[in-house]
Design goal:
Length: 385
Amino acid sequence: MTATAENTQATSSDEHPVLVDVKGVKVHFPIKKGVIFDKTVGHVYAVDGVDLQIRQGETYGLVGESGCGKSTLGRAILNLEPPTEGSVEFEGVDIASLKGEELRRKRKDIQMVFQDPMGSLDPRQSVESLLLEGMKAHGLAKDQKQASARLRELLKAVGLPAAALKKYPHEFSGGQRQRIGIARALSVDPKLIVADEPVSALDVSVQAQVINLLEQLQDEFDLTYLVVAHDLAVVRHISDRIGVMYLGALVEEAAADDIYTKPLHPYTRALMSAVPVPDPVIEDRRERILLQGDLPSPANPPKGCRFHTRCPWRQETKCDTERPQLRTLDIAGVPASHRVACHWAEQIESGELEMHTVTAQITSQSDLSEGGDDFLGPASVQEAL
Ligand SMILES: Nc1ncnc2c1ncn2[C@@H]1O[C@H](COP(=O)(O)OP(=O)(O)OP(=O)(O)O)[C@@H](O)[C@H]1O
Ligand code: SF4
Ligand SMILES: [Mg+2]
């Protein structure tokens, strides 16, 4: 589905069956220390309690700062990263419960498109061999005539000539390589494609072509997408619904248009306030919410609301002690599909609570040194996006 009439599509997609059901998923990576004994000294709480559903035929966009757990969640949905807790059901079946042939068959239905097409394509394999690999593994290339017809069909679908079959990845431009990556994902006739930053390595002009291609293919091949991206414009264009992640959890989820026109979580408000508006008059007048302080380490996430160390609406009660759940809001005109994880979302929206300045807080240095610098996020939302 395209995002040209997001609200209508979101409504109609509500009637579509749930394809992916993520239930309370946590992915915690142990932090090991010691030369002789591999002692676990802590955990990186990369994904820390996510519930979301992706309906058949929709595009679900996942956004958030670098290190908030988007890729890890995508990998958990593919079962490449087994959840520490919780489950991922695909067509009603818990993927982790599958083994052998059943798991192999299910894997065929869920494919991935990667950020770096060069890194994900073996440079020693021709395009033909790259495309045939998955087809052979899933018994889709038994008849040679049918297989070569399918290869030509795949190339045509992604806008490449049949002559590309005999070439190697280095002979193509970045955009063409991403088209090969997409053809490879399509080759096994999947139901869900998880696209992790599918265009962020490409030139801006090529990005639009690849995004348009993904949209066309969705209708043609009856696909469902999970698109992970840090570029809010890309996600808005392609998504029916959007989930905003912060430190391992969803803080807001709504139809794409609703997230952009009426962000209700303080973090989403800050993200959206950083997106430039094409109209110079509105651009000059609009309010910017500049977040203070670093993104805390996922090895030492703040207690209570994870966003409280940077939130301009933080309150003395609840914010530091109670972790808010994703919930529907009691605000007229806000649909039940728009869910927000903030104790005070209603009062912030009504203006009862006003923004205040935030004094930057430093998370425990001992925890940071255990996790290492790798676990630090960018200094600000602007830097990240
Ligand atoms: N295999 C791993 N072992 C330990 N920590 C990991 C592992 N994979 C990811 N992490 C950590 O988990 C956190 C979430 O990482 P993830 O790659 O999911 O974030 P992301 O939102 O995709 O970021 P980006 O936008 O930079 O791609 C980060 O702190 C990362 O360093
Ligand atoms: S719960 Fe409190 S700290 Fe968290 S986003 Fe809402 S107001 Fe801010
Ligand atoms: Mg990532």
